[in-house]
Amino acid sequence: MNKNVGDDDVRNFWDQVSSDWEAQVGDKGDSNRLLNSDPVLWKLVGAVRGLNVLDAGCGTGYLSRKLCDRGASVIGIDLSSKMIEIARQKNPDMDFRIDSCSELRTLDTCCFDMVVSNYVLMDLRDLHGAMKSFHRVLKPEGVAVLVFSHPCFPQARAAVNDQDGTVTYVWDYNYFEEARQVSPAWGHFKSEFIWFHRPLSAYWKAFRSAGFEIADFNEPSIARERYHLAANKRQLSNGKSRPYSVAFKLKKTDACK
Ligand SMILES: C[S@@+](CC[C@H](N)C(=O)[O-])C[C@H]1O[C@@H](n2cnc3c(N)ncnc32)[C@H](O)[C@@H]1O
Question: pTM here?
Answer without folding.
Answer: 0.95
